[in-house]
Amino acid sequence: MKIIETIKQMNVTFNARLNNRQAQRMKKLIVGQHVSDGMLMKLVIYFLLAIIAFLYLQPLLYMLSTMVKSSGDLIDPVVQWIPQKLHFQNLSDAWRGLKYPDAFKNTMMIALICSIFQVASCAITGYALARLEFPGKTIAFILIIVSFLVPPQLTVIPLYSIYSSLGVLNTPLVFIIPAIFGQGLRGALFIIIFRQFFLTQPKALEEAAKIDGASVYRLFFKIMLPLARPAIIVVFLFSFVWYWNMYYEPSMFLNQAYQPLSIRLNLLEQELMGNKLINFAVAVGKDPLTEGPKMAGAFLIIFPPLLIYLLTQRWFTEGIERSGMVE
User: Fold this and answer.
1) Is residue 211 part of a domain?
2) Over its length of 327 residues, how does the chain's per-residue pLDDT go in tens digits?
3) Is residue 260 part of a domain?
4) Domain containing 230 — which CATH number?
5) Rounded distance, CA 301 to CA 106, Å?
6) Phi, psi (5° rounding) for residue 243?
7) Number of domains making up the chain
8) Are 173 and 254 in contact (CB under 8 A)?
9) In angstroms, rounded to a whole number, what is the distance separating the alpha carbons of residues 37 and 326?
10) If DSSP states are collapsed to H, E and C, what string results for 206-262?
């Protein structure tokens, strides 16, 4: 009997330990050893990320859904996201209303030329501020930062007078000339990016090149500029997208003879339907008849920079990490 009781006691102890291990394993699975590796915390993180992703993607999803809706779907309150039938006529109307080939050529020329000039001028300026010694270097850097902080609305009237006196108003030169001198759209920010990148490079490279007799120009173009490829990619993409999307500056300095896509989008509704539709839209509080073409026009405008980003995403991410922008 004593042996049987001992065996029962051992069995009870074994089951208790087994249950305790299972409980510990279950607790480890749900809560985790640390705060971030438990299933419960992962569910909370995924839930928050899903909400944030939806907030960012919701305008894009609305645009994609609306641009393929017919007028009937836009008026029908039952139809929210998925149209009853895909209506691609909106894309055709937007293409025609935007005068897409001409507006695309104008926008591409401004964005591409200005981005290339801005990368070159900002790289040279950033290197000079990072590595060279010259009188007034600190003051120059402070002025660059101040120019970054000044809103463009404060400088639009003086710039308008300067461009008018130079005879370049209503031409792409109003954007190309500042880009050549590193003061284009957000040029100060790009100078700071290049300066920070060159500051992180080891001085041993330059010292070795100087011992071999390399001049400052050869040092920059042969050694430092190739190393700055990540910063060049980041600055070029940022500059291209900002020039592509700008609206305020073209509305001030360009007339109807030379309009980029951002200005054409604002005129799309009137271009398609005239004042008659505007009166209708004011009467009903919205304009369902042109909501589809307007969303299709927005899609046609964002598609080229979106495609460039998708093709260069790997280099862009690498450039962000290596250019010091994360720190």
Assistant:
1) yes
2) 566 676 667 666 666 666 777 777 777 777 666 666 778 888 888 999 999 999 999 999 999 998 888 888 888 888 888 888 888 888 888 898 888 999 999 999 999 999 999 999 999 999 999 988 889 889 999 998 888 888 888 888 999 999 999 988 888 899 999 999 888 888 888 999 899 888 888 888 888 888 888 888 888 888 888 888 888 988 999 999 999 999 888 888 888 778 888 888 888 877 777 655 545 454 455 566 678 888 999 999 999 998 988 888 888 877 777 666 555
3) no
4) 1.10.3720.10
5) 12
6) -70, -35
7) 1
8) no
9) 25
10) HHHHHHCCCCHHHHHHHHHHHHCHHHHHHHHHHHHHHHHHCCHHHHHHCCCCCCCHH
Q: What share of the chain is helix, strand, coil (3-state, %, to 5)?
A: 75, 0, 25
CB count within 10 Å of CB 244 equals 22
For residue 182, the enclosing domain spans: 104-241
Helix (H, G, I), strand (E, B) or coil at 273: helix
Assessment of whether the complete model's pTM goes beyond 0.85: no
